[in-house]
Amino acid sequence: MMAVASLSASIRCACAIRLSVPAPLCRNSRNFVSQCRQKASRKRLSQCCALPFDLSPPPIDDPLETMIAEEEELENRRNVYENDEEALNAAEHAAVVVDLSDYGRIRVSGKDRIQFLHNQTTANFECLGEGQGCDTVFVTPTARTIDISHAWIMKNAVVMVVSPVTCRGLTEMLEKYIFFSDEVEIQDISNQTRMFALYGPNARETMKELNLGDLSAQPYGCHRHYSVAGMPITVSVGSIISTEGFTFLMSPPSAETVWNALLGHGVVPMSPSAWETLRILQGRPAPGKELTDEFNVLEAHLWRAVSLNKGCYKGQETISRLVTYDGIKQRLWGVRLSSPVEPGSIITMDGKKVGKLTSFTSGTKASGPFGLGYIKKKAASEADSVTVGETTDRKSTRNLSLRVNRGMEQCNLVCFLLDIEDDIDWVSIWVPFSGPGICLLCRFPQGMPISEFRDCCSNSVFA
User: What is the distance of C-alpha 329 from the center of its chain?
Assistant: First the structure.
């Protein structure tokens, strides 16, 4: 399957896509917004009164007893989803709410929690205070991406919101890096809490109606604690996939009250499948797709989540080299497609492979088919046309044999390797034993995958 596609650059939010400016609301759109409000008009009066937000409740980051909601609670919310097209229309013209309770929530507590997270992720935690938040990235020692997390700095703990597929692995990884002298405790509180995201141009107006208008003017990541019928709830600026919108973190007994109150204010419920479409349209990278060991954090265009000034942390050496020697050779793009294609499809330009598609959605009527993909930095610019899909079968695996002189510096070798054509699959290399260096050819007589070879270089195999 092939599709002609045009590109739009990742420039908004952590990694967002330049989308065309929405046209003013037409008559149909205004009617749609009005209908959203009218649908719940009978519920509004009773449910608004049932949501007393108090500015001085017990904070959500106090130790919580395990409270797992009944399955019926989740089933009730699943049953209110309407069609995805209507929800996506509301996300553009009104407001939507989505249940993100399947996302992971990791609570990091203890006296050394700030320094610990400062060393384990890419953001500068030491410059943040209580009530603030940030995006940060979990990376490998060679700066390959694992997941992007939204962190809330609370009085007694830091809550890390992570993707559903990485929560368990990240929890285990963090526990592994706690030294005997560290006063740090890691706790997965996903089953003890619920989380909703509010998104859309009417989200701020909804917040005012909920007596939360003071939070609307706060910067991204800022959060405050409230209570619903005496139960703790935290509300934050930002909706996980965007700096716009708001996120609600609460205990399970409060979830149904908050959900019904939002619907009572005309907010349209959104299904997980529609949220995935919105993620792709917003250009938010996801684990297993854009965030894998094939790509580093800067190629994913997550600059806002990376501190270039703080001290040593995991992946810091590789990131510094990438910046210093302009080693970023590919970047994440949004691709407008002419027809459906499968994720993993090859992206070519003028018959030459320049990248790979990582996510696809059929999109909305306005957007059409849309995808995310990595493309070589020098291969294409915004609005260029590319071809997505394999055009010819590969007849054989190509190999590269490389001899490195003893005096070649590591930084030059790394920069050279990043320029190797992507259609090279295996590398054999020989480095003299006399002087610095080791012989990879002896360790891997049949060669090694190009991705592993690059990681070896980045991980200081060549000294």
Answer: 21
Token duo for residue 395: 């007849």
pLDDT 10s digit of each residue in the chain, 463 long?
444 454 443 322 323 333 322 333 344 444 544 454 444 433 332 333 334 444 444 456 655 544 444 445 555 555 566 689 999 999 999 999 999 999 999 999 999 999 999 999 999 999 999 999 999 999 999 999 999 999 999 999 999 999 999 999 999 999 999 999 999 999 999 999 999 999 999 999 999 998 888 898 899 999 999 877 677 899 999 999 999 999 999 988 889 889 989 999 999 999 999 999 999 999 999 999 999 999 999 999 999 999 998 888 898 899 999 998 888 889 999 999 989 999 999 999 888 899 999 999 999 888 899 999 999 988 878 778 889 986 443 333 333 333 333 333 333 333 334 344 444 444 444 444 333 334 443 344 344 454 555 555 444 333 3
Pairing mode, if any, of strands 96-99 and 268-270? parallel
CB burial of residue 409 (10 Å; 0-12, 13-18, 19+)? exposed
The tokens for 378 are 């020098």
pTM for this predicted structure: 0.73
CA-based nearest residue to 7, from 388, 382, 389: 382
**Spatial separation of the C-alpha atoms in residues 382 and 388, rounded to whole Å:** 16
- What's the rounded Cα separation, in Å, for the pair 359 and 344? 8
- Residues 6 or more apart whose CB falls under 8 angstroms from that of 24 comprise none
Q: How many CB atoms lie within 10 A of CB 367?
A: 19
